[in-house]
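Q: Can I borrow your eye for a moment on a structure tokenisation matter? Would you mind producing a protein record, from residues through to fold? Write it directly below this note and I will take it from there.
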Amino acid sequence: MVKHNTDTNGIGYEWEYAKVKDDRTIWQKIIMGIYNPSSHEFLGRSAKSWGGILLFYAVFYSSLACMFAICMKVLLSTLNDHTPHFTLTSSIIGTNPGLGFRPMSPNIEDGSLIYYAADNATNVEAWTNELDKFLAVYKNKTLLPDKGSNQQKCDYNIPPQKDKVCEVSLANMGPCTSEAKYQYPKAQPCVFIKLNKIFDWEPEFYSNKTDIPADMPQELKNTIASRNKHELFTIWVTCDGEAPADKDNIGPLKLYPQDGFPGYYYPYRNKRDYLSPLIAIHFLNPKRQTLINVECRAWAKNIFYKRSLQNREGSVHFELMID
């Protein structure tokens, strides 16, 4: 190619330059782009250039890793494996424990519904297996962190020793046993309930019979009136149908081993081998082929009750239906 130009005096001059024609194949161009033997460049950069880049990023990411490690070390130094940093009123959980129940359906879609056919062995087994899995740690102490060595037998006159916890026995659960399939084949199922754990929470008992609230069921009032003074240190539990129709359909109930959680299991302080005490609710004659809404409520001075579909407090709700 020739390019013409003219100077200020009108005298023309010219020079020539040529671009070498690139007759390389595409494959040759790719190979040359990866490594150029004439300039000793790899991917368009010399070894010195690549070395500088690698050194920069090595120093950069090493610094980031060190900063992250320091931050994590400082954070973890503020945490305790056994004691939460925020407790009671300063925690999200708060100071008002609720109740939980078992068995629960493995299908999330079923929600809090316990539904089965009493004459369907496979159906029954699905629910009893869920209870067996839940109760396994209560039956087999070798599943506990210290194999149950940190547990002791307690009663109202024998509180746990320092750093010890009270064992939870399933021996007094009446007919609610694995051997009896928890009475599910007889259409008289047992449902287990427990109080949700809140670290360092201490119950305030109805130790004075004059402090009993007016809305407490009369049957529980009679039970409290018949108990010895030391037995009043109990978190009481009542269960019934939610609506009037549910109360008619639920039938009689029996609670094992008693109508509440003994006070010597509290406060919960995350000691090794601790297990939550349990109550087995035995439904003696629930109406079959009918959906029954069940509500169980815990009773203590500092357990506040609130019935709400979105924010239930001091109680637990589940549904029972037997074909």
